[in-house]
């Protein structure tokens, strides 16, 4: 029997912590994905500030496995631990830069680098605005290494009516970029059906 796909979810300290939480909720709801979670110290703070103080604990409950970001000897730090890829949602400029320039002194950046060296999917929901040239260069760098930079920018044409709906759309779209083969309606990723000319 083939095992459940493993997905690493990183939550770093950029604004948009709710997107990381929603990614975990959506993956948990499929009942078909094994999730491996790393929350950076800065994200502990953004989860608490932007959602509520219980949000970091909720994120951990949703994940199949959780890791301390300082544990650079964890399973997910090795390429021998096979995964379907990793999503960092949201991805801070600090974490983006760590991945772009090989500063792999925490588990979040190390696990991301492992996805790239193993030629697996790495989806980075980089959130900052406006962007200076250094930010753009770091995005170009990780793109050259094979990462997918997918800023959490709303698809307004989907007409999300509420912020939770908008967060859900972004989370589902990010998961879609992993190309998981789950079948059925496990992930209700909405497709554009065309519109009036
Ligand atoms: C409320 C709040 C919002 C933040 N928003 C962003 C952001 O949108 N983008 C970003 O790159 N950093 C943002 N930061 C700063 C990062 O948290 C900071 O650079 C941190 O060192 C990132 O570390 P990490 O990548 O290990 O999570 C924010 C910080 C706070 C407290």
Q: Which helices and strands, and how do they pair?
A:
Elements: E1 6-11, H1 17-30, E2 34-39, H2 41-50, H3 55-62, E3 65-67, E4 85-91, H4 93-100, H5 107-117, E5 122-126, H6 133-145, E6 148-149, H7 163-176
Parallel strand pairs: 1-2, 1-4, 2-3, 4-5, 5-6
Helix pairs in contact: 1-3, 1-7, 4-5, 4-6
Bound molecules: flavin mononucleotide.
Strand-residue proportion: 5-15%
Query: What sort of overall outline do the alpha carbons produce when their principal axes are compared?
Result: globular
The H/E string reads EHEHHEEHHEHEH
Main sheet record: 6 strands, parallel
Task: Sum up the structure in keywords.
alpha/beta, six-stranded parallel sheet, about 200 residues, 6 strands, 7 helices, binds flavin mononucleotide
What does this structure look like?
This protein has a six-stranded parallel sheet, with helices on both faces. It is globular. Helix 4 crosses helix 5 and helix 4 packs across helix 6. It has 197 residues and is of the alpha/beta class. The protein has seven helices and six strands; from the N terminus they run E-H-E-H-H-E-E-H-H-E-H-E-H. The mean pLDDT is 96. It has one domain: Rossmann fold. It starts with 5 loop residues before the first strand and ends in a 21-residue tail after the last helix. The structure holds flavin mononucleotide (FMN).
């Amino acid at each position: 029997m083939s095992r459940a796909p493993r997905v690493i979810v990183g939550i770093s300290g950029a604004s948009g912590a709710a997107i990381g939480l929603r990614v975990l909720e959506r993956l948990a709801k499929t009942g078909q994905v094994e999730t491996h979670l790393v929350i950076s110290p800065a994200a502990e703070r953004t989860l608490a500030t932007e959602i509520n103080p219980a949000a970091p604990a909720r994120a951990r409950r949703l994940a199949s496995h959780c890791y301390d970001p300082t544990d650079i000897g964890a399973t997910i730090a090795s390429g021998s631990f096979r995964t379907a890829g990793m999503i960092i949602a949201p991805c801070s400029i600090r974490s983006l830069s760590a991945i772009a320039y090989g500063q792999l002194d925490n588990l979040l950046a190390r696990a991301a680098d492992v996805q790239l060296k193993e030629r697996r999917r790495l989806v980075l929901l980089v959130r900052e605005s406006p962007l200076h040239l250094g930010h753009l260069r770091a995005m170009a760098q990780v793109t050259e290494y094979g990462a997918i930079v997918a800023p959490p920018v709303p698809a307004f044409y989907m007409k999300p009516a509420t912020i939770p709906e908008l967060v859900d759309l972004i989370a589902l779209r990010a998961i879609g970029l992993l190309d998981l083969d789950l079948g059925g309606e496990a992930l209700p990723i909405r497709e554009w059906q065309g519109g009036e000319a």
